[in-house]
Amino acid sequence: MKRDNATPVGTGASAFFSDLIDTLTKRGRALLEPVGARRTMPGVDLVALGELLLSRRGEASGVALAQTLLSHFQAAESLERLTFLKALAAQFGPDRSRVEAAVDAFRQDGGADALNALHAASEPRRQELFRRLNLAPGGTAALIRIREEVAGLSRLHPELKVVDADFAHLFSSWFNRGFLVLRRIDWTTPANILEKIIRYEAVHAIGDWDDLRNRLEPEDRRCYGFFHPQLVDEPLIFVEVALTRDIPAAISPLLDPDRTTIPVSTATTAVFYSISNTQKGLKGVSFGNFLIKQVVDNLKAELPGLKTFVTLSPVPGFAAWLARERMDDSARWLTPGMRSAIASLYAPGWEDDRPGREVLSPVLLQAAAAYLLRAKSPRGRPLDPVARFHLGNGARLERLNVFGDVSQKGMEQSHGLMVNYLYGLDDIEKNHESFVEKGTVAASPAVRKLLRADSSSSDPVSMP
Length: 464
Fold this sequence. Notes:
Layout: H1 14-27, H2 46-55, H3 59-75, H4 78-91, H5 96-108, H6 112-122, H7 125-133, H8 139-153, H9 161-174, E1 181-184, H10 191-200, H11 209-216, E2 221-227, E3 237-244, H12 252-255, E4 269-277, H13 288-302, E5 308-311, E6 313-314, H14 318-327, H15 336-342, H16 354-373, H17 385-392, E7 396-401, H18 408-414, E8 418-422, H19 428-438, E9 441-442, H20 445-448, E10 461-462
Parallel strand pairs: 4-5, 9-10
Antiparallel strand pairs: 1-2, 2-3, 3-4, 6-8, 7-8
């Protein structure tokens, strides 16, 4: 197939696309290759190809067209990709004339058929385009990557937010719990998946293969991930679990390669110490709540001696919040004495001042209690994203652990603070409903006692 470079695609290129369709139809599925093979056709206009894909009814040619569009998009320069994404927003929305006709028909009729026609007419055409692209081999993974690119560009190009919203809408259906498979990940798992566990670990970085082996191979360690049938070697989210005899207050002993492994028959506590989402393109699609609940069920079935299910979680927003509170004279949660003590956090080398840390510990705990129990977003939810996740899942804020993570990352994001969230199996649903409906934070008496005696708030906080 040849194309005159002087002929603009979309005007004088009908012969080109006719030849393209004929070729794809004849070759059918034999043409198809993984998206990663990047079959490209120089001069193909992505926007015109998208329109062509929407117009086709044949399965073989449609799948091959989807393959071609995705491959060409991946191989395109960034400006060409941006032009296509902007066209998705501007040119692939609902057909206005069709919507207006459906509205008129519904006003005259008002029946179920007219309502269904209105619903179909109001759907953006790009959603159907995404569905057809998803039929290509590797299409699901390619669309996730495109959505990740869209999300990254939306700040500079806000018109792309409608495209991002359509991706989120479709992905919430394509990746619902019914399609997910829970698999245990251990040292015998294929190496290509283990490599991704190292790469995707977002909470406590895995240094090398020995570090990974220390987290997967011992008898008292577990790792589970959710997988999707279209992404068989890509965990969507995974959780690392330590089986212990008590609730830990620090992460270092759990990750220590020289620690003593305990027989699982003696373990009474399952500690979820790292949960990592792996696909930025699936942001907004919730997996974690289902993951934790199913892992709890699996562990209870395997090890009936487990009685306590708890996290050892980071507090990623605490240090930034505390810095803002310290600089704000009108801030509610810090007394003058607390401000004075907290000032030492910003002195060089304070981390190595052991006596100073002991003096600072109760102040940090008091401030952390205010941060997690009282400070709220405009929507009335805790400021900390990890707190919102676990409290929304029905966990209870059980214990605050000062200097639980003294790694560089832990000190920078939370001054070393870590939190235990308790998943009490008899209270999960009650806590979840109270948090979602009333914003109530379930907290243990020990955490509540850390609040300043003179603090007052109408924000609901529950305790047993």
